[in-house]
């Protein structure tokens, strides 16, 4: 099992923010309803417990960060078993589990920048920024995966730059006195080194890997996943709009449109693996987990950030099709009879069930449903994955819903369930600026935080004006259906107790 502190950094960002938000739910007799045992057990979150969990989450982050800086920096990550630094596996270039992301560019330090900012540690943030600028170079003869480098490194650099440049300084004075956009310059350099993946493609679908110094590796790998090729718009779009250069966003949007146009004519579904050179689907599995998850996520988050109507149109159509073909169980989350709702993997051509397992990455979908305003569905999606977590203590990589057991029984510190928990359970915000002003931020699929700013709704190269963009956004937003949960379930369990009992009995959690 690959266990590293890169992933734990992004898990802890959501843990910290979730612990900040989940405070006491108020007087339990506010609605004077009879409380069952589950309400009594889970329906409140004391202030003492909130502070305890907040301190524990911060402790976890600094345990990872401090040990990385002590034993591994300036290498990419800390090998926790050997307690030493780890970088690319030069002896085994085919070890893509390591080489896809470890590129000898202080990865964990770069990935930690915005977490330090959100924690309010301006001093260490400035120290980290100084180290990144002084020590990070992308002029390396290393083959890396475009998607992973985009979400982890490029996203981290853009996020830190935007937080530094925020004139309101919500996280304190993050800007070093000498700072002159060096992080944005690094991001520009890195993105330029990823462009051969797009430029050499005849279909518009990017190749999955590039050599940071030499361009497209020879022979290139032609097989890529939908998420890897179609989850670049947020970071590339922000870079384009910060640089007033349409190239980066243009390539990312072209890839999305090509994938969208290649969906099955019979169902409208996309597969999970495709050939870059021919545009032929290699994998016919269509689901919400590995290979597809962030494609849907970025359609919605890109719309939130940029206000492009085509992003929202693609997402709403995809969401309709997902519900049509993948959803099983009772029709409504908190009413009616039948099995608990579940989204299954299906065949893209027929819509028939393709596998009897779901994977841990699908846990992020509840967060997407929250952003889309489908709160009831989000509650049910999250409840299932939370219950699986409770059974095992962690979320298995794959869980078989027919046998009710783990198919792949390991947990590589994935953050998806934590992110959905954070997005779904903001109650009673406390002091952190992100929680008080959540509508001003979007999290990337890697957990990097991007401010939502009206300046990102314009394209200088198209001479569009803010008024036009605003009017389009308001008109589109008016079509949202965001039906809030009833007030009772704001203070007590969000999923009705007898449905929670149903899940627990199904999973063998008799003593829930």
Radius of gyration: 22 Å
The coarse silhouette is globular
Number of helices: 21
Our measurement of the CA-to-CA distance between the termini, rounded to an integer number of angstroms, reads 29 Å
Percent in helix: 40-55%
Low-confidence stretches: 1-6, 20-31, 464-479
Roughly what is the average pLDDT, rounded to an integer? 89
Q: Strand order across the biggest sheet?
A: 5-6-7
Give me the count of strands.
16
Largest sheet, strands/sense/barrel:
3 strands, antiparallel
Task: Name the beta content range.
Answer: 5-15%
Structural category:
mainly alpha
Give structural notes.
The protein is mostly helical. It is built from 21 helices and 16 strands. It has a three-stranded antiparallel beta sheet. The protein has a three-stranded antiparallel beta sheet with strand order 12-13-14, with no helix packed on it. Helix 1 runs antiparallel to helix 3, helix 5 runs parallel beside helix 7 and helix 15 runs antiparallel to helix 16. 45% of the residues are buried.
How is the secondary structure organized here?
Layout: H1 5-21, H2 37-42, H3 47-71, E1 77-79, E2 84-86, H4 96-99, H5 107-118, H6 122-135, E3 143-145, H7 146-165, H8 182-194, H9 196-199, E4 209-211, E5 223-225, H10 226-230, H11 233-243, H12 247-261, E6 273-275, E7 281-283, E8 285-286, H13 293-306, H14 309-325, E9 327-328, E10 342-343, E11 346-347, E12 357-359, H15 365-372, H16 375-392, E13 398-400, E14 405-408, H17 416-424, H18 433-436, E15 441-443, E16 449-451, H19 466-477, H20 487-491, H21 497-506
Antiparallel strand pairs: 1-2, 3-4, 5-6, 6-7, 8-11, 9-10, 12-13, 13-14, 15-16
Helix pairs in contact: 1-3, 1-5, 1-17, 5-6, 5-7, 7-8, 7-11, 11-12, 13-14, 13-15, 15-16, 15-17, 16-17
